[in-house]
Amino acid sequence: MNAPARARFVVLDGLDGCGKSTQAARLAAWFSARAGRPALHLREPGSTAAGERIRALLLDPETALVPESQVLLFAAARRQMLEELVRPALAAGRDVVCERFHPSTFAYQGTAGGVGEERVLELLLSWANEPTPDRIVILDLDPLTAATRRGTRDRFESRPPEFHQAVAEGYRRFATRAPNVSVVAAAGTPDEVAARIRAEVERADR
Q1: Which CATH superfamily is domain 9-205 in?
Q2: Across the strands, what pairs with 96?
Q3: Stretch (H or E) spanning 116
Q4: Residue 37: exposed, middle, or buried by beta-carbon count in 10 A (0-12, 13-18, 19+)?
Q5: Span between the terminal Cα atoms of the chain, in Å
Q6: How far apart are the C-alpha atoms of 158 and 118, rounded to whole Å?
Q7: SS3 for 8-58, per residue?
Q8: Domain segments of the chain as ranges
Q9: One pLDDT digit (tens) per residue for the chain, 206 residues
Q10: C-alpha span between 103 and 159 (Å, rounded)
Q11: 182 — phi, psi (to 5°)?
């Protein structure tokens, strides 16, 4: 398949333990080979100097942060990443693959955290939505399976199973109301999951 006429901005999202980092690296490598230029692989929150500091604060279980404050910090880190890294990369013709974006904040803080899905989505769309992803792929995995894959226990990973069940439901709710969103089964071998993701990206290009 020929490279698309313009650079693409693709997000991979899903529960902690669903395989986002592995699949984002594979997708970025695929984009790079397909386009003949290096794709940009980002994680969110993070990737910028400011974003990494915000990430450390957000994930630190010893620092008290109510869910509403978490939303504001996520939005700030995302806005910085979009302006500092995503926009210039797309303008230069580089594809962008980002781990996490609006679905995470919607699910973790809006649904499971009780902030309210409408409040979270309104804030994110107003303050951290340009450039807009061309495709968001949510990796869907049973929360109990995802729990067996997780490593360190940060602020969110250490929450009880009921919290992660609510997060999983939040992701599914996001997929029903946002445009350009695909839900892909995250069970299976890395090759199988990667093939499913590429199929969704290619479908979006058509």
Answers
A1: P-loop containing nucleotide triphosphate hydrolases (3.40.50.300)
A2: 9, 40
A3: none
A4: middle
A5: 11
A6: 26
A7: CEEEEEECCCCCHHHHHHHHHHHHHHHHCCCCEEEECCCCCHHHHHHHHHH
A8: 9-205
A9: 454 558 999 999 999 889 999 999 999 999 999 999 999 999 999 999 999 999 999 999 889 999 999 999 999 999 999 999 999 999 999 999 999 999 999 999 999 999 999 999 999 999 999 999 999 999 999 988 888 776 666 677 778 889 999 999 999 999 998 889 999 999 999 999 999 999 999 987 76
A10: 18
A11: -120, 145
| Count of Cβ atoms closer than 10 Å to residue 36 Cβ | 7
What's this model's pTM, rounded to 2 decimal places? 0.92
What is the C-alpha separation between 73 and 68, in angstroms, rounded?
9
Q: Are 164 and 107 in contact (CB under 8 A)?
A: no
Which residue type, as a one-letter code, is found at position 46?
G
Side chain identity at residue 131, one-letter code: P
Q: How many residues does the chain have?
A: 206
Q: Helix 190-205 and helix 20-35: axis angle, to 10°?
A: 50
Q: H/E/C letters for each residue in 131-186?
A: CCCCEEEEEECCHHHHHHHCCCCCCCCCCCHHHHHHHHHHHHHHHHHCCCEEEEEC
DSSP assignment, residue 92? T
